Amino acid sequence: MMPKALGGQIVMEKTPRYFVTVDTPARVHAMSQDIKLIVVVRDPVTRAISDYTQIISKTPEIPPFERLAFKNHTTGQIDSLWSPLWIGLYAQHMERWLAWFPRAQIHLVSGERLISDPAGELGKVQDFLGLQRIVTDKHFYFNKTKGFPCLKKPEGSSKPHCLGKTKGRTHVSIDPEVVQKLRDFYRPHNQRFYQMAGQDFGWQ
Predict the structure, then answer these.
(1) 158 known ligand binder
(2) Residue 27 marked ligand-binding
(3) Does residue 92 fall inside a structural domain?
(4) Would you say 42 is a known binding-site residue?
(5) Which domain holds residue 101?
(6) pTM for the full predicted model
(7) I need a labelling partner for 34 at 20 to 30 A (CA). Which of 62, 65, 89, 146 fits?
(8) 167 among the known binding-site residues?
(9) pLDDT in tens, 70-88
């Protein structure tokens, strides 16, 4: 369903769920073996809490994060199949993609650095895509209210552009002991992902 592109054009499609959906790598490979893939990753604990924050904004009656995160709260057994936690098992998902695509065709973007240095991260994306570095730090300003960088002036508009109201929300408060247990749970998975990625993302 991807539209055809003329010479010199790049067609992009963004669906975050593709990274974690089991049959997607094979389907993408069948469409194009030369496609370039970009994946934005962030600390999986922060990502899970962010995911839960979004969920309760739509379904406020669901149980607390602390209850959903564990199969057995007494033994401390994490429910790794609960979607907000399962998505953060990046090595598991990356392994499937590497079975179909060489590492050189997959570019990993640090979600943390995308906030702290958007121009730097987008510079690497432009290099990966073989584009001239046109987007630079002069295109961004930091919005203190949202806690995210925003575009000063998008193409064809005189107004600044920021991410929508669902981005930059204050995360729900989670029991620090639960956060620590999740960090301990993810640590070996993160280390394995760092090895596959060839870079250390510096997550706690």
Answers:
(1) no
(2) no
(3) yes
(4) yes
(5) 16-132+176-197
(6) 0.87
(7) 89
(8) yes
(9) 998 778 899 999 999 999 9
